[in-house]
Amino acid sequence: MTVKDIKSRPAVIREETTVYDAIVMLFLEDVGTLFVVDEKGLLQGVVSRKDFLKAALGSADMSKIPVGVIMTRLAQIHTVTEDEPVLQVVRRICENEVDSLPVVRPHGKDGFKVVGRVTKTNLARLLMELGEGR
Amino acid sequence: MTVKDIKSRPAVIREETTVYDAIVMLFLEDVGTLFVVDEKGLLQGVVSRKDFLKAALGSADMSKIPVGVIMTRLAQIHTVTEDEPVLQVVRRICENEVDSLPVVRPHGKDGFKVVGRVTKTNLARLLMELGEGR
């Protein structure tokens, strides 16, 4: 079983989106993490509920700060590819203490297209299916 | 395998705590959900990152609103007990679309003592251990 079998659709936004609008999108899409992409759809960063709460604690105006200011940048992000075994991804999620990982495909010289997300919800569902012998 | 084998320590606060202080505690305890208890340690409600983000979107002053105003109240909360089989809890987490459940012990007439929490992180770790044949 690989990432392809359990991944979900990713929710993406642009770097210029305000923190306020991004939080609204988080609720509309009902996800815990948004992936920040450029005009070509290439991954630039990740913002999670935790990042948004940190921003909310600060006194800055959330309707003015762009998401690019608070996101975790590409160099610090863990990613997975569709053909990775699920067990390897489970380990990456546990060891890096993240709620989700972007599923990517290499693109051009140093770029990554975002093609999905793997979350702890995907893992919980997998555990349920395994437990029920499906 | 039952809830007792996989549960974590709960992070609890009082209803009077401000939303601001509660978010700070969320970071200090490194959890996604806080359980709200009364002076006897009995469960009154639950507040999650999602509830805090909703509060942050509003214009109210987070350093003035008490957590009791934004929490989900006891009647609406799903709970589990220590002797429940893990598979049943996995199903409850998936079906109710929550990140964690309070582990409780009945106390008095209608009360519940909070004795732990089960989260998607516990489930991801369990999946990792099962996959590694531990």
UniProtKB/TrEMBL annotation, chains A, B:
Entry-linked PROSITE patterns: CBS
Limits of the CBS domain: 6-62, 71-134
Assigned keywords, A-Z: CBS domain
Protein name: CBS domain containing membrane protein
SUPFAM superfamilies, A to Z: CBS-domain pair
Transmembrane segments: none
Keyword Hydrolase: no
Organism of provenance: Dethiobacter alkaliphilus AHT 1
